[in-house]
Design goal:
Chain lengths: 331, 256
Amino acid sequence: MIELEGLTKRYGDKMAVNHLTFTVRPGIVTGFLGPNGAGKSTTMRMMLGLDRPTAGDVRIDGQHYDRLKDPLKYIGALLDAKAMHGGRSAFNHLLCLAQSNGIPSSRVHEVLDTVGLTAVARKKAKGFSLGMGQRLGIAGALLGDPRILMFDEPVNGLDPEGIHWIRNLMKSLAEQGRTIFVSSHLMSEMALTADHLVVIGQGRLLADTSMADFIEQNSRSYVRIRSPQRERLLDVLYAAGITAVQAGGETLEVDGGKAEQIGELAAQHHLVLHELSPQQASLEEAFMRLTAESVEYHAHSDTPAPSGLPAGAPPDSSAAAWGDGWQEGRS
Amino acid sequence: MTAAQVIRSEWTKIRSVASTVWTLGLAAVVTIALGALISLLFKNQWSDLSEKDRLSFDPTYTSFAGMSLGQLAMIVFGVLVVSNEYSTGMIRTSLAAVPQRGTFLACKLAVAAGLAFAVGIVTSFAAFFLGQAMLGGHSTSIGDPGVLRAVLGGALYMTLIALFSMGVAAMLRSPMLSLGILMPFFFLISNILGAVSATKKIARYLPDQAGSKIMQVVTPVDNDTPYGPWGGLAIMVGWVVVALLGGYVLLKQRDA
């Protein structure tokens, strides 16, 4: 269990992490999601006692990180796959970590085997590919057989095979009842692995919700209709109390799951339909909607109107509210 | 988390990188070889020396003449032991494993200083005996007054130079910046300040000039240094303590 309370980090004028309060619960995979520069890595560094919070508090199983006896046995972290001395062999890198926490050297062989690096255990880490470096970093996280594991963007820059491996590893670790806290800037990646979601943008909490709730609240379903008799169809729909939006060309979009009703209406009025298909907006779109205002580096200059987000917005309720707020801000 | 665990870990770290071997190896070889060479030159040119030079000739100190160059390798050793952690990003992995930063730094320093002293003592004795062999008839004996102190002092001097460099590197973090300040300081600036009469009196209190007093057995004829060999070493220890405290305070406060 990791508890954050009003965790704040300021660099000069810039609020990197702004009053974050949430709990990473045991036994599930919690996805930590946010655009680049949202403060994910800073938050994780503060969890490990590497960066000092400007304000607020973070506790691991009720204790501050630096009060943990042999911390690698509580929490294993992969923050940066390159955070190791390249001139040291994989075995010695893990050995020095193991010794500092009183972990037997036999465990080094075990984790090297788990991540599939036994064959290159005596090779220097600087000759490793990104994927191998990532595996070595994960071996270091697993070393103390901890109940909590933390991964910062573990699939970044990996090939499909490596991504597949990490996904399966995280799932099997969660099945063993461990707490997994994994950050990503890709919603699609989280949808595959996480049970719970914590979304931040510009250092602020945007959502703290279960994956199922997030999907339900954020995946907009609508019906796409194409018809050569678009004007008449619009009249018919309007008369039936259904609002349709023009989506370019002959295409109309109707929110909600009313495909049957629309089909029957069209038949009654002898209207030709070229397409009538229920659609589901992707989670990626939902995530982008949620974080659109807080993306730090926009590719274009017309930033959306700022809205007054209360610091430490209450969890759960905020997800839908945020999407709505954004849409209002745009219209 | 016990200090013994961290000491073992730091020992694994220090023995598993190539830079340890080549910096300490170079420090030993340069100090011994250059000391022997200069001792040989003194013996061959003895007849050219003035009366004053002959009276203040110090066979022990002469055999340590290689120290001025060999200490540069010792500085590189000290700087790399600490700054390697920062330049590679290993510091974040290290501090996640050992979050008690005071323990972390103390154990790292203890291991590195212990190793530097071991290399120093071998180097010091080798430089002394080889130097005396080269000096032939002008040599001194390890049993003469003050000589053993000077030889042991040579090992202490090398250890303190390494520790001072570790403290500076802990403050500055960057290996290039640390070396860029320490190397010219010990190789050039300290010597220049010591040679110019206006700054001579201040330069005597610089760590290397004060510390190297411990390796002298014969007091120069016109000596007016206000401290003895142990006094000089104490001044050097003072510098080292300040550098290490600075490194500790910054490590404690900074984000990794």
